[in-house]
Amino acid sequence: MTVLQKKAHNPIGHLTPEDIEQLGVELDAIRQSVIDTRGADDAAYIRKVIDAQRKLELGSRAILLISMFPPAWVVGTAGLAVAKIIENMEIGHNVMHGQWDWMRDPKIHSTTWEWDNASPSEQWKHSHNELHHTYTNVIGKDNDLGYGIMRVDEDQRWVPFYTAQPLWNFVNACFFEYGIAAYDLELGKNLATKERRNNPEFRARAKVTLKKIRNQVTKDYVIHPLLSGPSFLNTIAANATANLVRNIWTHSVIMCGHFPEGVETFERKSIVGETRGEWYLRQMLGSANISGSKAMHFMTGNLSFQIEHHLFPDLPSNRYQEIAPQVQALFAKYGLTYTTGSLPRQVASAWKKVIRLSLPNDFGRKARAKVLPLLPVTPRSEAGSRAAA
Amino acid sequence: MAQIRVLRRVASLLTTPLAPEDILGLVNPLSSSRQLRGVVTKVVRETPDSTTIHFRPGRGWNPHAAGQWARVGVEIDGVRHWRSYSLSAAAGHDPAITVTAIGVVSTALARDTRVGDILFLDTPQGDFTLPEHPRPLLMLTAGSGLTPVMSMIRTLVPRRPDADVVLIHSARTPADALFHDELLELADQFPGLTVKHWFTRDSGTGAPARRLDLGDATDLETLCPDWRDRAAYACGPADFLDAATELWLRDGHDDTHENLTIERFATALLPGTGGEGGLVTFEKSDKEVEVDGDVPLLDAGEECGVVMPSGCRMGICRSCLIPLVAGKVRDLRTGEVHGDEGELIQTCVNAAAGPVNLDI
Fold it and tell me: Which positions make up the signal peptide (chain A) (predicted)?
């Protein structure tokens, strides 16, 4: 993809400023309709999910106490992986977005929630809620475009480091929680110079992250294995597997949000003085959904409704599915493309882009150019001036 | 204590990033010591509009003194609301609140509470309590203002043979009068209690139905001739208490109102004190909202999902204090505009006067 503003066919060229503001009004109305009907059922939903997730995690860890028996290992590991995925996605991500703040329950609140992930919630909320959700898909502003280690857009400058980006992406998928923590700490930038390394603010944040990682690692790889006694090593392997599965799954789902073909990116200067309608429009074109079953949506934390989530990041996730048809109807009404596809298709599309863009944009074209006969071309401006003469 | 701390530390290694209580809470909702809860054990309809809710509090509750109040949190349409209620049960007994259906929260509590429901709680507070040494007492109450006084009467009268209590209670009709029959029975049984009901609409006895007049001492003299010699406790609507305060100041025994202790349920906000309002930013919660000049900051925060500390909601208990980062606020009781950086703001009685940033 190329930033929308440089495209030969601009996908929003047919919209007048009035259209865009009207679109904003209609989206605001959808948002309000959910807010007006938020209530006891939604509160019961998130409490049920949290309760079930905790019981699943507790049960799985209990089974893993005897993980030297292969069936216990398999069941316990699978349960723990699912529990960790739910905890990170349908619960953690969404609670930290403030989707449940309206309940005024201090236990289920964006300001108090801490998740089972390497990155401390405070730092994640800053890089995710404030930066990514505000500057979605703006080249040079939204670091989620390739997480600073990959090139996922033609308009990101190629450097030789990107040649190996399929490998970086795979490594990042396996250790995704640490990738997120490093990303939230802006490790690449902050380790680059001695001055930045010694910045007290950075050091304080790094300390918090390291403490959190230490607690997480102690729990998964020391305490619970010790409790398993003779199953010590099996439990370590089980917990590592559950973390790996969670990492790869969350990485795959998140890649599908903004990397697949069809998602638009934006120039930095295009968001200067952006109106609410224009912001909405950027979210609509900058995100992609995943189609699938109810269970699939749940396991992605309803991030399969990435478009709806980006339009309304603080609406309760259990309501995205219900408003998706209305949002889709607005796409149709305003002649916009609602990008969606099955999980395998979107994952493949995102990976294809990671692989293709590991090479410079004109790599294939240069190679072809050699075999084409070179015709003498008169630059147009010169031709124009000659004609004038 | 040290052992418990070590135990907690070890347990939290197992449960991080959650607290051990979060796991215990899966089995026993009353186990959390961070959020005190109670389970409703009995619900009694007192009058057509009011209900007594008995509850058994979980860990962390302190036994209440007669006359004290507690904050009670209840969820309505999925949203947690907090209000303060006087505890009407005798000291030493499991607590109970008596709620009159006025306003959204009290109405929901009075109408929809069932045995087994969980209430969120805060520990009992307040200094509207019985005197340390025995004295003749006069209780002057109106409407639901009887609730803290009822706790005092239930505590004192059956236990102290030397008690000398006169209760003057004003209600609209006998059917509206809280604890009507129980009070008459107590007065029959114990010589230490005298009960004078005053009905403002329909006495059922043919007596003139009018408001108890505290503009001068005439009514009081009739009901309780030695009122000046008694330690008085008053609880009821704001105008009722204002009149009582003035009367004691003017006609009381020693030209002061030291003999009178009052408990307010609501504070009179100056009408028309609201100014232009403004954009309120709750910095740590990362929320902002545009509000009118007559909306307390507490309500504004709650409305947009900030977990605001709160208490009496009428400018007395100072549980709702939040440091001001920037801007000016208007005190809704006096209309005064104030605000220095770092000043602790009573959010329940202050509104925005222009843009305001709060440190929460």
Answer: none
